[in-house]
Amino acid sequence: MPVENEARPLLAGLCALARDAVFRASSVVIRASSPGERLTSGDLADAVGGRFPASYASSTLAKIGRNTFSSWEQTGHLAAGDRATKVRTRAACRPSDVAYALLLGHLQGVRGQALFQTLWAEMLDQPASRLYDLTATAAQQGMLELRHAGGVTEVTFRELLRPFDGEQGALL
Asked: Which of 15, 145, 159, 165 has the fewest CB atoms within 10 Å, counting from its CB?
């Protein structure tokens, strides 16, 4: 099933977040800020420096700040401001972004309602009601299976985690 072009920046950001501890450390600033706030690359460098004390020289932290600043702009969490700042924005989120974020949580061992409180879900930058709507749409599109009744939520990924032809067991 094809992925909407609008979903790709956030998908790439979620993938980078899952794979890169430095980028993940910079997410503290994004998660703590609200749309409309002005941020600097120094804010991101400080977050990384706080997570990895004595690991990077100040010049390296400055470069990390600039690079993560640009990356968060590409994901849609920041928009151009003046020369030294960017404005915190709400990232555009599509059903495939939600499916991927919930899958990342599932692969961590998180289940049920807790999937909507993981770092991955938080980085989707959406209110809980919107996440549920997008999850329902992702289920309608066959990206995941969603069951919600009596206050209990179950999300599974039979299609995404199915074995490939000729393989034994699930892909994990």
From this structure: 165
